[in-house]
């Protein structure tokens, strides 16, 4: 419980101090476009590192060498915890935004930082708005900024992943960028699996798979790309090998 209270206190202070910082960054961005995003990336990563330290996350990162540094990619991951985003952002050697549910856009403070690092908000109940978000993601990838998605659609603590939504990979197909499968292990042991809202120090692992180029896949793999990616991530999760 102590870790939870300390983390809550840290977040309150972070968001309070973030208000004047965001005002200053907005003013600076008018004279120097892009500086808000660059500074926000550093501040968000620093904040995430602090959160993970407070939570007691001991992170092992595998396969970082698989991530191309000279082009944007679509990261596709399983989803077990709120901490998935923090672990992914800290572990990635390149900047990225996330596709989040539309409801998160209404959270004061948090949504501002999410917009600063180019997160996208998906309305899952409105097909038209959902398509608009996909097109925004395509343009973002084409502009050179990577994105991470969680095709299960929600956090899942079961051993088996939920079926991947087939439309989740459309951004990569239309932007013609490679897909990096991501396997997250044990992130929910930090919080979600514990009783009484207590955080518990835990070992977590994030593994980046080899890039997948859609135009090189077989016809059946392209047709059911979501299921194909899910099978790859399932294999990564079941693997006992760890490359540190």
From TrEMBL:
InterPro entries: AGP_acyltrans, Plipid/glycerol_acylTrfase
The record's note on its domains: The HXXXXD motif is essential for acyltransferase activity and may constitute the binding site for the phosphate moiety of the glycerol-3-phosphate.
PROSITE patterns: PROKAR_LIPOPROTEIN
Protein name: 1-acyl-sn-glycerol-3-phosphate acyltransferase
Pathway the protein acts in: Lipid metabolism
Protein's UniProt keywords contain Ribosomal protein: no
Enzyme class, UniProt record, top EC level: transferase
GO molecular function per UniProt: 1-acylglycerol-3-phosphate O-acyltransferase activity
Domain of life: Bacteria
Membership in a protein family: Belongs to the 1-acyl-sn-glycerol-3-phosphate acyltransferase family.
Keyword NADP: no
One of the Pfam families matching this protein, by short name: Acyltransferase
Record-annotated Phospholipid/glycerol acyltransferase domain positions: 73-187
Spans traversing the lipid bilayer: 6-28
Keywords: Acyltransferase, Lipid biosynthesis, Lipid metabolism, Membrane, Phospholipid biosynthesis, Phospholipid metabolism, Transferase, Transmembrane, Transmembrane helix
Gene Ontology terms: cellular component: membrane
Catalytic activity reported: a 1-acyl-sn-glycero-3-phosphate + an acyl-CoA = a 1,2-diacyl-sn-glycero-3-phosphate + CoA
Matching SMART domains: PlsC
Record-listed E.C. numbers: 2.3.1.51
Gene Ontology terms: biological process: phosphatidic acid biosynthetic process
């Amino acid at each position: 419980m102590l870790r939870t209270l300390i983390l809550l206190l840290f977040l309150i202070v972070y968001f309070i101090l973030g208000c004047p910082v965001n005002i200053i960054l907005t003013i600076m961005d008018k004279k120097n476009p892009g500086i808000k995003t660059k500074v926000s990336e550093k501040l968000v990563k620093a904040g995430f590192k602090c959160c993970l330290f407070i939570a007691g996350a001991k992170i092992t990162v595998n396969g970082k060498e698989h991530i191309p540094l000279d082009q944007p990619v679509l990261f596709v991951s399983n989803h077990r915890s709120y901490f998935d985003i923090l672990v992914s952002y800290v572990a990635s050697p390149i900047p990225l935004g996330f596709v989040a549910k539309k409801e998160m856009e209404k959270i004061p403070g948090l949504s501002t930082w999410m917009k600063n690092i180019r997160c996208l908000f998906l309305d899952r109940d409105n097909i038209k708005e959902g398509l608009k978000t996909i097109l925004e993601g395509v343009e973002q990838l084409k502009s050179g900024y990577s994105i991470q998605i969680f095709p299960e659609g929600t956090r899942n603590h079961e051993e088996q992943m939920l079926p991947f939504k087939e439309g989740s990979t459309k951004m990569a197909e239309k932007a013609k960028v490679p897909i990096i499968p991501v396997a997250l292990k044990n992130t929910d042991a930090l919080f979600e699996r514990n009783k009484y809202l207590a955080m518990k120090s835990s070992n977590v692992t994030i593994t980046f798979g080899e890039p997948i180029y859609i135009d090189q896949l077989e016809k059946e793999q392209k047709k059911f790309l979501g299921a194909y990616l899910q099978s790859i991530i399932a294999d990564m999760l079941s693997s006992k090998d760890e490359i540190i």
